[in-house]
Design brief:
Number of helices: 1
Strand content: 35-45%
Structural class: mainly beta
Strand order of the largest sheet: 1-2-4-12-9-8-7
């Protein structure tokens, strides 16, 4: 049992509400530099390394490995070309109307970040395949 966890029904409904608020065709950007104070803060001082679109969100499902309900981002392309070279430090998700809604850690695949890519050291013109999900801890049953 996970302490301080929601039921699967509540966690699933919460995820569905969160992903609905973010919406389809959300902007997804990976940056290098200092992480802003919050998702609404400017990223003008950061280096934009990759930009893509989250076309939709997967149905919330239970992950026994995480002890959480999880909804995966469905990207509009299987991979995206990098815009600039640099080390990825964070990702920003914004609604299709450009309202910032989430900052996420970025790590290499298997590194445990909220966003994972093949290599955090981006090189201009080299494609990257981001993987991102949102999870809410919940009971196993």
């Amino acid at each position: 049992m996970t302490t301080n966890a929601f039921s699967q029904a509540v966690a699933g409904a919460s995820l569905a509400a969160i992903t609905a608020a973010i919406g389809a065709n959300a902007q997804f950007d990976i940056y290098g530099g200092t992480v802003p104070a919050d998702s609404g803060a400017s990223t003008a001082a950061n280096t934009l390394l990759m930009s893509g679109t989250i076309s939709s969100w997967g149905t919330p499902t239970y992950s026994s490995g995480l002890g959480a309900m999880v909804s995966d981002a469905v990207f509009s392309a299987s991979s995206y070309g990098t815009i600039a070279s640099g080390t990825a430090t964070f990702a920003k998700t914004s609604t299709s109307g450009s309202v910032g809604v989430r900052l996420s850690t970025v790590t290499a695949t298997g590194g445990g970040g909220e966003v994972q890519v093949g290599n955090i050291n981006f090189q201009t013109g080299v494609n990257e395949t981001p993987v991102m999900s949102i999870s809410i801890p919940c009971d196993a049953v």
